[in-house]
């Protein structure tokens, strides 16, 4: 069976980045948006990253514009927004689709490995979060309303 390490993405600055580069770390993979009611979660994601990065946590942000056009900017604009408004230092990737025929292969894997409520695979909204263990296995999926700090105990168990 595939693991998250079988995929790669483009960083927000346009470089190819294999997810395998994060092997051995606990990953929190999130589809993000700059103009969403959940956008303030960037602050919580950065806080959890700062708290646990030295213990082996990596947060990976994937901007997505599939939900009510809530991330219409360019990758450069998104990067600047995240840095200026929320002090984001965790890795951000180029904008992708998370649902449909053009969904990024990583998100196809994540949604198959951790379906949502009632077995629905589609990502419901911005800031859906996927927790991955140090071996690349998808452990949990969290709803957009789940605050990053509410995932801390699950992260600690994996660290």
Which of globular, elongated, flat, extended, rod-shaped describes the shape? globular
DSSP E strands, number: 6
Indicate the low-confidence ranges by residue numbers.
none
Can you write the helix and strand succession as a string?
EEEHEHHEEH
Secondary structure class reads alpha+beta
Instruction: Report how far the terminal alpha carbons are from each other.
Output: 23 Å
Give the spatial strand order of the biggest sheet: 4-3-5-6
What is the multimeric organization of the chains shown? single chain
For the record, the CATH class is: Alpha Beta
Radius of gyration: 14 Å
Largest sheet: 4 strands, mixed
Looking at this structure, what is the CATH superfamily? Glutaredoxin
Helicity level: 25-40%
Averaged pLDDT: 92
- Look up the CATH topology: Glutaredoxin
Proper CATH architecture = 3-Layer(aba) Sandwich
Describe it.
With 159 residues, the protein is of the alpha+beta class. The protein has a single domain (4-28, 38-142), classed as 3-Layer(aba) Sandwich (Glutaredoxin). The chain is 25% helix and 18% strand. The protein has four helices and six strands. The chain has helices at residues 41-52, 75-86, 105-113, 152-158; strands at residues 8-10, 16-18, 26-32, 57-63, 129-132, 138-142. The chain has a four-stranded mixed β-sheet, sandwiched between helices. A two-stranded antiparallel ribbon has the order 1-2. A hairpin with a 5-residue loop joins β5 (129-132) and β6. The radius of gyration is 14 Å and the shape is globular.
